[in-house]
UniProtKB/TrEMBL annotation:
<dbReference type="InterPro" id="IPR009006">
    <property type="entry name" value="Ala_racemase/Decarboxylase_C"/>
</dbReference>
<keyword id="KW-0620">Polyamine biosynthesis</keyword>
<dbReference type="InterPro" id="IPR002433">
    <property type="entry name" value="Orn_de-COase"/>
</dbReference>
<dbReference type="GO" id="GO:0005737">
    <property type="term" value="C:cytoplasm"/>
</dbReference>
<keyword id="KW-0456">Lyase</keyword>
<feature type="active site" description="Proton donor">
    <location>
        <position position="351"/>
    </location>
</feature>
<dbReference type="InterPro" id="IPR000183">
    <property type="entry name" value="Orn/DAP/Arg_de-COase"/>
</dbReference>
<feature type="domain" description="Orn/DAP/Arg decarboxylase 2 N-terminal">
    <location>
        <begin position="44"/>
        <end position="276"/>
    </location>
</feature>
<comment type="function">
    <text>Catalyzes the first and rate-limiting step of polyamine biosynthesis that converts ornithine into putrescine, which is the precursor for the polyamines, spermidine and spermine. Polyamines are essential for cell proliferation and are implicated in cellular processes, ranging from DNA replication to apoptosis.</text>
</comment>
<dbReference type="Pfam" id="PF02784">
    <property type="entry name" value="Orn_Arg_deC_N"/>
</dbReference>
<dbReference type="GO" id="GO:0004586">
    <property type="term" value="F:ornithine decarboxylase activity"/>
</dbReference>
<keyword id="KW-0663">Pyridoxal phosphate</keyword>
<dbReference type="InterPro" id="IPR022644">
    <property type="entry name" value="De-COase2_N"/>
</dbReference>
<dbReference type="Pfam" id="PF00278">
    <property type="entry name" value="Orn_DAP_Arg_deC"/>
</dbReference>
<comment type="subunit">
    <text>Homodimer. Only the dimer is catalytically active, as the active sites are constructed of residues from both monomers.</text>
</comment>
<dbReference type="GO" id="GO:0033387">
    <property type="term" value="P:putrescine biosynthetic process from arginine, via ornithine"/>
</dbReference>
<feature type="modified residue" description="N6-(pyridoxal phosphate)lysine">
    <location>
        <position position="67"/>
    </location>
</feature>
Length: 473
């Protein structure tokens, strides 16, 4: 495994089990020393989602879609939990391999790959890859003829946050048989079928149709001498706090029982937003306010519209509004119960008129220096963010409660030095403003034994203390 130098901001801060994200946010905000937008990422939420997945769909092995959020800590936690990975480029492949993940846990799930990326997959042993067109088959024949191929078919959900079928996926009835014949003539090894019903699927029954179509392709491939053993049911799984996986899981399980009862067929999926959406909470500071007063021509009543300018926008985290069709919900950090609500809009910090986060919403009258909180911001936000106009991309500060730490502490690729203990809120405040790697340790009354992976032998004892965040409020 490659060893890297970890900065304070790339480590996971362990907090008391009685503490949550809002407690950490409150401590940072109440310090009155912080102005930059920032994220709190709760690793425990990723672990919770994984447990739910394993309970609801035990047969389906998740291969996390790296493009959704490629934060190294997220990838390390998922690698420790045993997931596979869906990579779309050689850079994503390298990032996953650098964690010590075996290449057979990666599917190169981009049906249209540059030749250099195919060669790189061959060099790194990433054998499984998708295709949906004849040109791709000839490229693979030239650069990686030993690859294990998966034909991607198209089956679009009627409702989806992002439709993908217009770009990827061949017709299961007309195109797939032809492509399989070409692959056979080229001597290529096709091992299965994949599909993607659309990111953020709003029609669970689309999975039933797609799995049924996959069965048809499996059966046709058998007439050509192929013996498929892999079904990739793609992505599309919801990830917001209010969402549930159960309706989709039931349809998938029932469809697998009906169309793929053979346990020798390996079933994988490519969840992205499911794992990370609810793990990220974004805090933005109001730095400017413009009030627009309007007089009703009949009643002569004057109303006010408040334009709030915050320090993150559509060129930063809120690119998800433009590219991912996300609806974001602002929550004033202060308690606004009983306060009058006013017509409001929220704007990003750049000088571009396009930089509007929310066109119309109802908020209480807020002041400069107050905070707006946005939950469910972990998917397709930071990977696309840019420092346009000189405004920085928000930093991410990662937390985990004691139970999560206890689960992860001894599993590779995570090591003890990935975790920080102590006065978490105070150090979050300090590291938000600079990149200082210093850390203030408390008294040391607790001894924790760290064992080798797959071994009972003790390699080192670490003396640590967990501090209740409420002591610093």
């Amino acid at each position: 495994m490659k060893i890297i130098n970890l900065t304070t901001n790339s480590r996971v801060r362990v907090i008391n089990n009685r503490t949550d994200v809002w407690n950490v946010l409150r401590t940072v905000v109440d310090s009155e020393t912080q102005e930059d937008a920032f994220y709190i990422c709760d690793i425990g939420e990723v672990v919770r989602k994984h447990k739910i997945w394993k309970i609801l769909m035990p047969r389906v092995v998740p291969h996390y879609a790296v493009k959704c959020n490629d934060n190294r800590a997220i990838l390390e936690v998922l690698a420790a939990l045993g997931t596979g990975f869906d990579c779309a480029s050689k850079a994503e492949i390298n990032k996953v391999l650098s964690l010590g993940v075996d290449s057979d846990r990666i599917i190169f799930a981009n049906p249209a790959k540059p030749a250099s990326h195919i060669r790189h997959a061959a060099l790194t042993g990433v054998n499984t890859m998708t295709f949906d067109n004849e040109t791709e088959l000839h490229k693979i024949k030239n650069f990686f003829p030993e690859a294990k191929l998966v034909v991607r078919i198209r089956c679009d959900a009627k409702v989806a946050q992002c439709q993908l079928g217009m770009k990827f996926g061949c017709d299961a009835t007309t195109e797939a048989p032809y492509l399989l014949s070409v692959a056979r003539d080229l001597g290529l090894d096709v091992v299965g079928v994949s599909f993607h019903v659309g990111s953020g699927c709003g029609e669970p029954d689309a999975f039933r149709r797609a799995i049924a179509s996959s069965r048809t392709v499996f059966d046709y491939a058998a007439t050509l001498g192929y013996n498929f053993n892999l079904l990739d049911i793609g992505g599309g799984y919801p990830g917001r706090r209010e969402d549930t996986l159960e309706p989709i899981a039931k349809i998938i399980n029932d469809s697998l029982d009906k169309y793929f009862p053979d346990p020798h067929v390996r079933v994988i999926a490519e969840p992205g937003r499911y794992y990370v959406t609810s793990a990220y909470t974004l805090a933005c500071n109001i730095h400017s306010i413009r009030t627009i007063k309007t007089e009703d021509p009949i009643t002569k009543e004057i109303t006010s519209h408040y334009m709030y300018y915050i320090n993150d926008g559509v060129y930063g985290s809120f690119n998800c509004i433009l590219y991912d069709h996300q609806v974001v919900i602002p929550q004033p950090f202060k308690n606004c119960d009983g306060l009058e609500l006013h017509s409001s809009s929220i704007w990003g910090p750049t000088c571009d008129g396009l930089d509007q986060v929310i066109e119309e919403c109802m908020l209480p009258e807020l002041k400069v220096g107050e905070w707006l909180i946005f939950e469910d911001m972990g998917a397709y936000t930071l990977p696309v963010a840019s420092p346009f106009n000189g405004f920085p991309v928000p930093k991410v500060h990662i937390i985990a409660d004691e139970n999560t730490w206890d689960l992860l502490k001894g599993i590779l690729p995570l090591r003890e030095d990935h975790f920080i203990f102590g006065q978490t809120p105070a150090n979050i405040r300090a590291s938000l403003q600079n990149d200082d790697n210093s850390w203030i340790f408390p008294k040391l009354p607790i001894t924790v034994s760290i064992s080798k992976c797959n071994s009972n032998s003790i390699i080192q004892e670490h003396v640590l203390e967990l501090v209740d965040i409420s002591l610093f409020q």
